[in-house]
Amino acid sequence: MTENWTADRVRQAFLNFFSERGHTVVPSASLVPQDDPTLLFTNAGMNQFKDVFLGTGTRPYTRAVDTQKCMRVSGKHNDLEEVGRDGTHHTFFEMLGNWSFGDYYKKEAIAWAWELLTGVYGLDKSRLWVTVFEDDQGKLPRDDEAAGYWRSETDIDPSHILYCGREDNFWMMGDTGPCGPDSEIHYDRGPEACSKQGVPGHVCEVNGDCGRFTEYWNLVFIQYNSLPSGELEPLPTPHVDTGLGFERLVAHLQGKAANYDTDLFQPIIQQTQVLAGHTDAEREANLVAYRVIADHIRAVTFLIGDGVMPANDGRGYVLRMVLRRAVRFGRTIGLTQPFIATLADTVIQRMGHVFPELPARVDFIKATILGEEQRFLRTLDQGLSRLQEMIDGARSAGLTTISGDQAFFLHDTLGLPFEVTRDIVLEQGCTVDELGYHAAREAQRARARAAGAFEMEADAHAQVYPVLHDWIRTQRGTWDLAQDPYSSTQRETRVVALLKGDAIVDQAEAGEAVEVVLQDTCFYVESGGQVTDTGRIGGAGWEVHVTDTRRPIEGLVVHIGEVVSGTPRVGDVATAEVDEARRWDIRRNHTATHLLHKALHQVLGSHVQQAGSVVAPDRLRFDFNHSGSITTDQRAEIERIATDAILANYEVSARQESYRDALQQGVTALFTEKYGDVVRVLRVGPAGAPFSQELCGGTHVDRTGEIGGFLILAEYGIGAGIRRIEATTGRGALQAVQTLRARQEQAAALLGSGADDMVDRIARLQDELRAAHCEIDQLTHKLARADFQSALDQVTDVDGVPVLAALVSAPDANTLREMADWFRDKVQNGVVVLGTVVDGKPLLIAAATKQLVTERGIHAGNLVRDLARMVGGGGGGRPDMAQAGGRDPDKLAAALAQVPALLKAMMH
Ligand SMILES: [Zn+2]
Ligand SMILES: [Zn+2]
Predict the structure, then answer these.
(1) Which residue from 652, 685, 668 is spatially nearest to 597, judged by alpha carbons?
(2) Which ligand is nearest to the CA of 189?
(3) Distance (Å) from CA 114 to ligand 1 centroid
């Protein structure tokens, strides 16, 4: 073991080792799984190769190696509460892996793993143990092949080769699909690492529960396909899929007991210590907080770097929760000002050379963190004190549990994530009703869904596509359908399959709804915000109008539409034709979207990142992060920059480049796209100094001049720190201006003015309107005064005190108060109670002169409270003046009639 094993060296040694053995070094996939709705986060290296194992996708290489960003927030290996309490649990981590796609198999995988661990990293051979598969259900053959290679290809102690059953040594992707036996490599940390020393009957063992043996590396041999019947069908070519926990290996090679003590975490921890102003002893006393912060900062930085935005559900919730949890732990070590972005900087500096998406998005990451942190800090104190009240309240009632509704209230109203509530409650020796919390949250979701719940039906139909996919493959013996929406909008091709509803059919008749699969298609399928093409497919004597196009499975495009004439048949020669005029409108809007993106960067700053986009024929929509509003001048400037780029008539070109090279050249990458190792870079302007360069799979104009004009239609905020711009180009821009002009002329006609002096005319009208309102106010006041004068006749004598209790007409509470003052001016020593109805609700006021308060015990507040109860309301106030509201105007008169009796009871 040597201190020279920096994390960077450990990672690079792995990549180099396999690169030297013919493996392509591929970039880590995004933490947001692409095309896999079943998965919240990428949690293993194989996620991005799932389509290869399933047989629906291919890669230009058969051997790959990478380090994969992974995120796990729940599940048997990662309960959030464990993070920071020991040295090995993380939310975010890296997984090193090497793959063979039908290339090498067990022999090489085993020999290389051994060579790397013992020869390169220098692990002690006598401490390594391996497990191989032996079916505890007795159905599958024992993996003697793997065991044999451990004996023949390595010099491991043969007694260290163990057989284990399905739970430990058989890997499945899901209930069905690719699967196979695996072989795990464990390290014996020695008897001193046993956490159960002295426990009677305890024996340390591999896959035991005492922590002495640690699993380092899992080699998975994918050789079966698990069928729905439970039967295992051998794959024609087996694959290798391995995963090696990076942080654990680094800790080992650096001789550290905890992953947090390595150079992956120490820079963050040291920076935190500087911010907290702690001594080393203080840091050690708060070790858990320091570790949780270090872990969560990494997760936050990488999640936002992959485009996750804080939100109240899904991935956004996990990000929000982890970030807010870090803020709360920061609070426990005295960090009360925003600090997360500062620590994110440390992460980006340390990891940026491995994950170029981080430095490429540094401004965006920090701006998003700061916005979310400030939002949370605004309500954190309130949330914490409300929670403390709840805990105290529960305790004084002899309870130790916070209810699910309480926890949900804190989450929903005060932004305190459930996990933070749970942390605090547990710290104080209480518990929180977790099931109740989820029930409350689910109930709210159900309410939210009730409005528009219609998405279910499509799912049932989706079942047909894997069947169709298999049908095409068996019919043709291969899977080689082509998709190219770029080179032309017309394609000579052939009908490969037809669907009517859920049925795969040979032919369809006029008037029937169909889905058509073509050998080769020029239709664009919605992706990166650009909407799907429409058009027609025609053959000998038949035609299908295509209204929608989808890609339900990677590689499978279905054209959805109706047979308008003739009888299309599977195998027919056909011409596919995209609606050309519509496609041109889409092209203009798509290229304009890139111009807009660039203009936003220039005008608002480099923190601006696309948060969503729609490119349709009639308009484009662009969502982006920016806190604060956009001024009229800024909007005009954005339009001017985009227009200048159009007038410059820049060339627009697309080129295939390596993902890494593209990012290093400063190409803007969006989050919503799936990027392979080779990406399509769309440049606007000269290659040497482009106006804009983005990764993009969309269709574009050839030169910017073809866009015609660019016009922003609307700009507004759509969420915390997210704004939306709607704009249009070409024919749409002309139409928008014509609509505006027509509306302006209409308004001018109504105002009886010309278009040019419309503004003056409106200003004059507003002055007149103000004057009229003023006059109305004065008249209302006069009326109230007259009304009050006549009410004075109703003054009665109650035990020697003049009392006025009357129903009056007053427009608001102010006038009512004014009336009470008029009464006190008129009657030096008396009680007034006035009631009125404003907006259908009763309003009450009571006033008594000071002398009556002190000498006769009159209390206007108590009086009003009693009266308010009679009209279904509440209120109160000072002894000399009080006011209240109610709900029931019909009972106001009856309540006022009770005033003399109430006063009598009150007075002495
Ligand atoms: Zn033990
Ligand atoms: Zn694009």
Answers:
(1) 668
(2) 1
(3) 25
